Amino acid sequence: VLAGVILYAAYSFWTQNKDAKDLHAKAKEAAQWRGDSAEKGQKIEVLEGSIKALEGRLREAELEAQKNQQLLEQSTKALEDCQKAKA
Q1: Distances from the Cα of 26 to the Cαs of 14, 16, 40, in angstroms?
Q2: What pLDDT does 75 receive?
Q3: pLDDT at residue 87 above 80?
Q4: Nearest to 84 by CA among 68, 71, 72, 76
Q5: 32, 56, 69, 87: which one has the fewest Cβ atoms less than 10 Å from its Cβ?
C-alpha cells in the first residue's frame, strides 16, 4: 500500500510538473501573439494614415485636373474665336 501511495504521489507530481511546463509554454506563446498583434495594429494605423494622406492628395490632384481642363477649354475657345476673327 505504501508503494502505491508513493507511486501515486510521484505520478501526481510528474503530471502537475508537466502541466505547469505546458501552461508556461502556452502563456509564453500567448504573450508573443499579443506582442505580434500590437505591432501589426500599429502598422495598420500607420498604413491607414498613409492611405488618408494619399486620398487627400488624390482629391487635390483631381481638383487641379478639373481646373486645368477648364483652362484648356477656355483656351481652345479663345483660339477658335481668334481664328474665326481672322477669317
Answers
A1: 18, 15, 21
A2: 96
A3: no
A4: 76
A5: 87
The three three-digit cell numbers of residue 64, written as one number: 487641379
Grid cell listed for 24 = 508556461
Q: How far apart are CA 73 and CA 54, in angstroms?
A: 28
Report CA torsion sign: 65, 67, 70, 71. Answer: negative
Total residue count of the chain as it appears in this document:
87
The residue-averaged pLDDT of 17-32 equals 96
pTM score, whole prediction: 0.56
For cell 507511486, name the residue: 7
How many whole angstroms separate alpha carbon 71 and alpha carbon 78?
10
User: Which residue do the cell numbers 494605423 mark?
Assistant: 45
- pLDDT tens string 26-70: 999 999 999 999 999 999 999 999 999 999 999 999 999 999 999
